[in-house]
């Protein structure tokens, strides 16, 4: 797995690899606002994970996940803060995301 200095650089490289959809965490699923496409935790795999730690600002802490639908129909990315800025998600989603540490 490659290492990147910035979230933007990581997202650009993943887009070039075909991870073109932007997903958001929505408690118990991920949602692509571009096409209103939803995936439950058992419907996608995390292919790559990158973690960024802010040197001076905790608001700069972020994780980038490259995800793909198990049926191969869609690939995209999830960006999520961690720590005190983390999104509220279901226990099933926490398990899914924590299996792939950055």
Explain how this protein is built.
The protein is α+β, with helices and mostly antiparallel strands and 102 residues long. The chain has one domain. The protein is 18% helix and 34% strand. It contains 2 helices and 6 strands; from the N terminus they run H-E-E-E-E-E-E-H. It has helices spanning 7-16, 91-98, and strands at residues 21-25, 30-32, 37-39, 44-52, 62-69, 75-81. Strands 3-2-1-6-5-4 form a 6-stranded mixed beta sheet, with helices on one face. Strand 5 and strand 6 (75-81) form a beta hairpin. The protein is globular and about 30 Å long. The protein starts with 6 loop residues before the first helix and ends with a helix. The model has no long low-confidence stretch (mean pLDDT 82).
Tags for this model:
globular; 102 residues; alpha+beta; single chain; 6-stranded mixed sheet
Topology at a glance:
Blueprint: H1 7-16, E1 21-25, E2 30-32, E3 37-39, E4 44-52, E5 62-69, E6 75-81, H2 91-98
Parallel strand pairs: 1-6
Antiparallel strand pairs: 1-2, 2-3, 4-5, 5-6
Uncertain segments are none
Order of helices and strands: HEEEEEEH
Q: What's the helical proportion of residues?
A: 10-25%
| SS element count, helices | 2
The overall strand count is 6
- Major sheet summary line: 6 strands, mixed
- Overall pLDDT level: 82
Apparent shape: globular
**What percentage of the residues does DSSP assign to strands (E)?**
25-35%
Structural class: alpha+beta
Radius of gyration: 13 Å
Number of domains: 1
Span of the ends, CA to CA: 10 Å
């Amino acid at each position: 797995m490659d290492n990147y200095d910035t979230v933007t650089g990581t997202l650009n490289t993943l887009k070039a690899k075909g991870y073109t959809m932007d997903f958001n965490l929505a408690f118990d699923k991920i949602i692509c606002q571009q096409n209103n496409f939803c995936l439950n935790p058992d419907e996608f795999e995390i292919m790559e994970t990158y973690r960024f730690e802010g040197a001076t600002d905790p608001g700069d802490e972020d994780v980038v996940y490259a995800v793909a639908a198990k049926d191969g129909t869609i690939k995209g990315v999830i960006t999520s803060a961690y720590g005190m800025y983390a999104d509220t998600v279901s226990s099933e989603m926490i398990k899914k995301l924590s299996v792939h540490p950055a």
